[in-house]
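User: We ran a pulldown and think these components assemble together. Before we commit to crystallization trials, I'd like a predicted model of the whole complex to look at. Sequences follow.
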Amino acid sequence: MCIAAPAQIIEINDNVAVVDFGGVRQSAKLDLVEDVEVGRYVLVHSGYAIEVLSDQEAKESLEAWEELLKTLDEEEN
Amino acid sequence: MKNLSKKIVERIENIARPVKIMHVCGSHEHTVMQHGIRSLIPKEVEVVAGPGCPVCCVPSIEVDECLYLARNGVTIATFGDMLRVPGTTGTLADAKAEGADVRIVYGVNNAVEIAKKIDKEIVFMAAGFETTAPTTASEIVAGPPENLSFISCHRLIPPALRFLIESGEVNLNALIEPGHVSTIIGTKPYHEFSEKYGIPQVVAGFNPFDILIAIYMILKQLDDGKAVVQNEYKRAVREEGNIKAQKLMDEVFYIKDKEWRGFPEIPDSTYELRDEFSSANARERFDIQVEQGEKVPTGCICGPILRGVSRPEECALFKTQCNPMNPIGACMVSKEGTCNIAYRYGSAF
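Assistant: Here's a predicted model for the assembly, 426 residues in total across the polymer chains.
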């Protein structure tokens, strides 16, 4: 039930945003987050943005995991 | 992608040791089962599912409270999964079939919208862990419509972890912490488990790589003789969590001892509305008459499954009488329930 997905803010009207989940658009309330603006990525849970993500963080990337693994390996040495 | 999994699994194999790693998140169990993670890693590295589904953890008495209201003319709004969770006198789906007004909503904001449109009392059954509790809090602070009140079934993860560790029933050695609960509460509430009990912990995301890396990070901590809290899910979890959401929860709720399905009373483990908001508390607004005591369906082992002691395959009802179309126990109801997931993805055991 704690499912949440990253989405990009397309427009903001008061405390409600229209967010884009890679093609699917829904509204998300902004009462739980600060410093949001159009274009930013948020993590959306049950109709509410629960965290603001940096653009880079929002994109799950293989490089990010590779990087993490590299860091862990370096700790080892 | 294959290469990355291979790289992580090789590292896991190099430092594998007998260990019991518990996660407490339905979405983690989903990833583990869907991607066959248990079959990818050495057998001695055991990944155990704990009480990770807030729907499954709602005890029958709280379902009974909502059934009582529904059967006495009050509209109930709640998340879809709650409809089939058994109380002692049926489910909310049964009440709906009998003619009660039970509405499925995606979020608490939908309950607010419904309340504005109807001319009768409506109660939002607020289930969920710390991920969901701030959404309820935000609507209560905003001043909900007068005909809307709330039954808080919100439950807190760290007290359940403390209970599981102290009970010693599962004998867990390490924890994978839930990503989106941690988005709200941050990583600090977990520190006591590493410091006091020497338990390595990793906050993890929901991709199979997240889980595999978290397992590797835990094994590496054990290999290095460390027990700390590490954050693998930095893209969504800050150390301090979401402070605005935490403040809203503090403003609206106080913390109360309460039973969970499959558990006795867990100290400091649930949220109840503060006195300032008693007018929005359905337990204050209505004289709800329910009988105490949990009624477990004969043969159902949801309790031990929620505590991480048993697996669905050990239940005589699993796949014989209990299935997602006809769930007997709460863990078969939700797509986040351990039994439901085991039914859909088979078992790696």
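The mean pLDDT of chain B is 95. That may be worth checking against your pulldown data before setting up trials.

User: Thanks, that helps.
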